[in-house]
Each structure stands twice: as structure tokens, then as C-alpha cells.
Amino acid sequence: MTYSPLPPLTDSPEWDALREQAEHLRPRHMRDLFAEDPDRYPRYTLEAAGLLLDYSKNRITDSSLAALMALARSRRLEERIGALFKGERVNTTENRPALHAALRTPESEAVTVEGQDVVPEVHHTLRRMETFVGQIHSGQWRGMNGHPFTDVVSIGIGGSFLGPQMVSEALRPYWHDQLRCHFVANIDGSDISDTLRHLDPETTLFLVQSKSFRTQETLANARAAREWFVENGGSQEQVSRHFVAVTSQQDEAERFGIARDNVFPMWDWVGGRYSLWSAIGLPIALAVGMDNFRSLLAGAHAMDEHFRTAPLERNIPVIMGLLGLWYSHFFDAHSHAVLPYDHFLKSLPAHLQQLDMESNGKQVRINGTPVDYPTGPVIWGGAGANGQHAYHQLLHQGTRLVPVDFIMPLHSHNPLGDHHRLLFANCLSQSQALMRGKIDEEAFEEMRAEGMPEEKARELAPHKAIPGNKPSNTLLLDRVDPKGLGALIALYEHKVFVQGALWDIDSFDQWGVELGKQLGKTIEKRLEADGGQGEPREDSSTTGLIQLFRERGQGISGAGK
Ligand SMILES: O=P(O)(O)OC[C@H]1OC(O)[C@H](O)[C@@H](O)[C@@H]1O
């Protein structure tokens, strides 16, 4: 990309202006901001691609937002967004574009990378997926002994697992009647053993999902699956009916024994954590059908268009990205919670964890110099209302500021009695409680009204007081359907991009995960029964633990005690 270095982030008039804004806002309570401005909700609400963002419960005013926008412009954010969509090499360390948006671009449009339009090959692959999914669903493609498939086991890890697993789970109400989807990721043998235990090899289809086709966990699990298949009556010839791969390394997949025609492509311009829109989404398409998979893409494309064209002030990913930076730099927030109030979205936080933390967990700028500011936050979360009875305590009364995203559909797929109204009330009451809190005096008065003696009420009031002034976004969608979900995931992808652009880091590489893999190879050898030959090269802790495992643990030969 024609990358021209950005000036230092924290040494600029725009940064000084933000610091001033933060000093002004820090002592102010959101209760007062709401009291002063009855239009705060409509003023700080945006709608796009079927999603509504209410960001009024944030510690912001028009002037702090204007200062954030000025910062975004000084970081040439609009130019960076343009570069992403134009297919420039925004992944500078790997010298590649990041073209996940091209995966959801309609066939009538073009995304040209160095003279070549990538959209036709994307749609060619979608059509191949469509044919394959149709053959599996109709029973035209059958397993050994002519039985139609009843189960699909997707084997992959990281981006080749989290996205497809989360989306399949989120779209549970759309699942094909006769097909169940399972996911195996962990190298822990319990994962695949537990999955296969309940399956019949005659009716089980395996998808081996790996962009690199080099990932230890995936290859070990794929080998275990093949062994199980063969040990349970499958022949080598039948492997070609039961094993399909998605990878950018077609030859490697063939070497593994997967028929060439059963290999779906992936491209090096798609990062693993952005790949659920590609053939890596095959488990999703098998679970919910190709029409729904295309709706997922359409929802994401609608968000792409919003992100690409909306002015920064009306741009949902831009606003969410800037708010994250605001809290992490000026309010000392170290983490960010994602709380979907929808049972089927319970794995969304895990997907966003990889998306955000692998993208923006970086310590040097694009030019290789160290950052002198915090970058990506710790992302965590879980399904509401469950968390209310667990970790919300820390959100309300802990000493750390944790900005929250509440995500809530207006309609449930299971409108049981008044469950959905209760769920919605829970969601709103949490964001309201975080915002307004309960001052000492209120806690005291409440206890007095319940008849508690004054002295006891005074004693307990500080324990019951809740400071409030805790920021949150509320994201609403009509229901968790393919289109809305596509838009929601794409929104977070773009939010991560915005923050990476502001911090001037490469959000598309992940060198940090490599060291453990390198060291793992040596350690794994040393854990073998005869692996301790020669001088130990490790630190005493690692050597001691290796020794202990060799003496007391169960090695690869299963010879442990
Ligand atoms: O799809 P694969 O090549 O098997 O990679 C699977 C995963 O492996 C990693 O170590 C990367 O950190 C992830 O970004 C990637 O998604």
C-alpha cells in the first residue's frame, strides 16, 4: 500500500484537545448529562444495515465527540477505509491486502487488486458450495453404503473454527432438519473422542478446515477422524466421499488424502479470523442452507457499504472504535465486555475475542517503532442474563472501568410466555444501572423505608451504593437472522479496523502466536520417553515440568502410569 507514516498519536493538537475534553468530562456524571439533555437518546442513536446503535449511555458530549472526529481525521481514517476497500496492501508486514469485504461483494461489482478482479472467483466458489450443499441436503451425495449424511464434523481451529461455530450456533433456528453440525478444534483428544462417540461413520461427513493446512491441532484431529473412519468400516476409496477440505494449500490437502475435487479454495488475502465468509463458512452453509448463507453475506455487505460511505459522524463502526479508544486512553479501561442478550449468540464473545485480540494485540506501529499507548483491550463476555448473576458484580461495584456492549434482538425465535419481555427488561435494567448507579443516600433511604434502624442503614449504605457512570452501547437488531447477524459481525470487523488505523498498527498479522508453536515442537520431542538425551536447554521450570511429565504423565505412546 502507499502507506505514508502517521505522526505520533499522543503528540498532536488533536490529542491535547481530547485530553482537555476528558478532564472536563471525568468529574461529570451521566445522570446529569441525561437530565440536562432530554434528546440525548435520539442525538446519540444511529441506524444502519438493520442494526440500531444507542451510544447515549457513554461519557461523551457533542464537543468530546467532535474532538474524537478531529483525531480520526488527523489519523487519515477515511483514507485508510478507502485503502481497505480498494484492496491495497493494508497488511503491511505480510505485504497483502485484507479482502474479507470482497467475499461478500455482489457479483455485479468488482474488487480489483493489481489489475485483477477477485469477485468472479469468489462467486465461482460460492456456486461450488451451493452445488455441494444441495447434493448433501438432497441426498444425492451419500456416504458409504448409500446412506444420506446425518452429521457433519468440522475440524479446524482459530479462525477456521470460532466464526463458523459461532454463526452456526447463532442460526440454530434455521438448521436443516436432517443434518447436525459438530465442531472439533482442540488437540485434547477428549474433544474429538467425545464428538465421535455418538456418531455413525456411515452417515458422517468430515470437513477439514485449515487455511495453511499446517496447523498441528487440525491435522492431528483430521488424522484421528480418518483412522476412526477406516477402523469403523470405511475404505480409502470411501474417504473421498466422506472427507472434504477448505484450504489455500490444495496440494497439502491432496497429500493428506483428500480428493482434489473435494477441496474448496481459500485465498491468502483472507485472514483466518475474517474467513467465515469464504468456503470456511461451509459448515454454516450445510447447517442453514445456501440461501441463508447468502443472506449472511448480504447483511455483511450492507454493513460494508455503511462503513465505506457514511460520514465519520454517522458511521457506526467508527463511533464504536473511537469510543473504545476514548475509554482505554483517558479512562484507564483495560477490557471491554460483549454481552449478547440472546441464547443463540452466546459464542459471539469468543469469536470477537479472536477477532479483536489477535488483530489489535500489537506493540509496534506499522513502521516498527514501539507504541507509547495502550492498544487492543481484553475482550470478554457471555450471554445475558446469566452474567448478571455472576460477573456483573464487578461491572457495578468493582474498581475497574469496563465499557460494555449490550446486544439484543427485538424478537425471539422462541417467544415463550413473557420470557422475551423479561429478557429485554433485564438488558435495559443493566445498562440503566451501570449508567445511573445508586448513591449512598438512596441506598440509605431505601433501607430506612424498609424499616431498618438508622444506625444499621448508615453502616450498610456504602456497601450498597453503586457509583454508576459506567459506559455502555446498546445494539439492537430485529431478530438474530442471517442478515442481521452478518451485519453485526461485519460491524465488529470494521470497529477493529478503525482502532488499528487510529493506533497505526497492522491489524492483519499475528506473529505473536508463533513463538509458542516454535517452542512447542522442541518440547514435544523432549516429552517423548527418550527425549531427555543431552543437556537440557530449557529454563529450570520447563525442564522440571518435562521431567515430571516423563516420570508421571502419559506420553504419546500412552505408556504413562
Ligand atoms: O486455518 P489455519 O491455517 O489452520 O489456521 C488456524 C489458526 O491458526 C493460528 O495459529 C492463527 O493464530 C489463527 O489466526 C488461525 O485462524
Automatic annotation (TrEMBL):
It comes from the Bacteria. InterPro entries: G6P_Isomerase, G6P_Isomerase_C, Phosphoglucose_isomerase_CS, SIS_dom_sf, SIS_PGI_1, SIS_PGI_2. It holds the Pfam family PGI. Residues 527-561 are annotated as: Disordered. One of its GO terms (biological process) is gluconeogenesis. Residues 527-540 have a biased composition (Basic and acidic residues). PROSITE patterns: P_GLUCOSE_ISOMERASE_1, P_GLUCOSE_ISOMERASE_2, P_GLUCOSE_ISOMERASE_3. Its EC number is 5.3.1.9. The active site is at residues 358, 389, 517. Belongs to the GPI family. PANTHER family: GLUCOSE-6-PHOSPHATE ISOMERASE. Catalyzes the reversible isomerization of glucose-6-phosphate to fructose-6-phosphate. This is Glucose-6-phosphate isomerase. It comes from Halospina denitrificans. The gene is pgi.
